[in-house]
């Protein structure tokens, strides 16, 4: 696969009529010295025109992953992504490792990962709006993170192999989950690991829920497996090790409506009379977090 040709083609996405005006925001950002900290909130302290910054940030809505604080502007994102990150943080060490984040959105997790001092950080997400949000934040952070307008299907062809790949909230969007897991496998170096999360349903049997038309009002959810079924998928893809790290049920404190998104959020996706079910009558969203190892040492 000619990734360079693909990059040139996808860079043209930034000239789309709905994206090009947003890119001018990046071009016109103030050049300032900033102090950056990477706690639950990715915080950027700088002497800025807060009124202009607020207006610019609002123009880049919807903000899904975060939160961020830039000068006097707090970007209260739909997802409190710090909850997921803090859940996973005890389970990885990225120092001097080549790291990829598949479906990286605006880069919140990668900004948090900078504290680990990885050798390199590469984000994959074919979304011009999320790339623009990333560039907005990174203008002040000034990191060496590489953001590729590429998807999981390109990881195996990437110019380098990775020691750790994060793939959070992507698998259920793929109509062939085993094929996607194989792509991740091929993107790893020897003894490489994948940190994966996906929706799951309770049950001991090796089976999966196949939503008819949508799941939590999300149309492109194809399979929601039991953990046993997920393990089989991963072993079939070639991984030598499958380790469950955590499980969690998505709560309103983690995903909710704010002034920084457009449209609906978790409260609209659940049965108003029974929050243990989606509006379609399926089990409410729960996530399993696993570590996959390519080859045992």
Name the features.
297 residues, alpha/beta, Rossmann fold, 4-stranded mixed sheet, 9 helices
Structural notes for this entry:
This protein is α/β, with parallel strands linked by helices. It has a single domain (3-19, 36-270, 277-293), classed as Rossmann fold. The protein has nine helices and 15 strands. The strands form four sheets. The chain has a seven-stranded mixed sheet with strand order 7-6-5-8-9-15-12. A four-stranded mixed sheet has the order 1-2-3-4. The longest helix has 14 residues, at 128-141. The model has no long low-confidence stretch (mean pLDDT 97).
Please write out the topology.
Layout: H1 3-11, H2 20-27, E1 35-38, E2 42-45, H3 50-59, E3 68-70, E4 73-75, H4 81-88, E5 98-102, H5 108-113, E6 120-124, H6 128-141, E7 146-148, E8 162-168, H7 177-186, E9 188-199, E10 208-209, E11 224-225, H8 227-236, E12 241-249, H9 266-269, E13 270-271, E14 274-278, E15 286-293
Parallel strand pairs: 2-3, 5-6, 5-8, 6-7, 8-9
Antiparallel strand pairs: 1-2, 3-4, 9-15, 10-11, 12-15, 13-14
Helix pairs in contact: 2-6
């Amino acid at each position: 696969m000619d990734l360079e040709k693909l990059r040139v083609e996808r860079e043209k996405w930034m000239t789309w009529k709905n994206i090009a005006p947003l890119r001018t925001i990046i071009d016109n950002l103030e050049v300032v010295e900033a102090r950056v900290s990477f706690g639950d909130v990715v915080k950027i302290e700088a002497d800025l025109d807060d009124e202009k910054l607020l207006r610019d940030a609002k123009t880049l809505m919807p903000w899904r992953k975060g939160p961020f604080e830039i000068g006097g502007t707090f970007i209260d994102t739909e997802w409190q992504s710090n909850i997921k990150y803090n859940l996973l943080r005890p389970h990885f060490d990225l120092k001097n490792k080549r790291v990829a984040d598949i479906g990286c959105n605006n880069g919140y997790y990668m900004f948090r990962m900078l504290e680990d001092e990885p050798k390199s950080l590469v984000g994959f997400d074919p979304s011009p709006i999320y790339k623009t949000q990333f560039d907005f934040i990174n203008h002040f952070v000034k990191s060496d993170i590489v953001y590729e307008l590429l998807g999981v299907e390109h990881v195996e062809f990437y110019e380098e192999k990775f020691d750790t790949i994060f793939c959070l909230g992507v698998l259920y969007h793929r109509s062939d989950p085993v094929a996607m897991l194989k792509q991740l496998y091929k993107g790893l170096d020897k003894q490489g690991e994948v940190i994966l999360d996906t929706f799951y349903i309770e049950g001991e049997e090796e089976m999966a829920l196949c939503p008819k038309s949508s799941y939590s009002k999300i149309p492109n959810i194809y399979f929601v497996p039991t953990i046993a079924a997920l393990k089989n998928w991963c072993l079939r893809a070639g991984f030598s090790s499958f380790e469950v790290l955590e499980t969690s049920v998505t709560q309103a404190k983690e995903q909710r409506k704010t002034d920084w998104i457009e449209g609906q959020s978790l409260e609209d996706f659940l049965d108003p009379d029974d929050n243990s079910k989606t509006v379609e009558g399926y089990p409410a969203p729960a996530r399993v977090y696993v570590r996959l190892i390519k080859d045992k040492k």
